[in-house]
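When time allows, look over one protein, given below as sequence and tokens. The question is which stretches look regular and which look disordered:
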Amino acid sequence: MPRPTKGARLGGGPSHEPLLLAGLARELFQYGRITTTEAKARRLRPLAEKLITKAKKGDIHNRRLVRKTITDVSVLHTLFTEIAPRFENRPGGYTRITKIGGRRGDNAPMAVIELVEGEIATKATVAEAEAATKRSVKEAETKAAETKAAEAAETKAAEAEETKADEAAETTEA
């Protein structure tokens, strides 16, 4: 049986805590960003990251494990079809916590927890970018060489025409 965490229970008892975190995770996946207290955001982050990792695997076993926490079927569908594929190449760090100051009524430290939008560059992506750069440089060099060869051919053709014109002029003079 899981042992409840020590310390503050986020405003409730030990049986209320997983339900509170599940509700926060559901809202995070539904809206992509939520504003909550800093303590709740810090407790939500590992849970949300584990759920996204399970959703990335996408098999029926992991879907059932996530279903234990996220009971709303539409949010579960969104997690598996939209959110998980977005983080397919990302090894972790799916959420970001930003502190926004104290709450107006009681000055409780507030934070925004959101899903990270940008993709990070993986080794494969970096290698593809380097290969594309090398390819474009090689193509530019080839194009420059072709242009130079074309110019040289035009110059030779122009010189040949001048030579013929000179010979023709000499022939007519003689």
Summary: Residues 121-173 form one domain. The first helix runs from residue 16 to 31. Strands lie at 33-37, 95-102, 109-115. The longest strand covers residues 95-102.
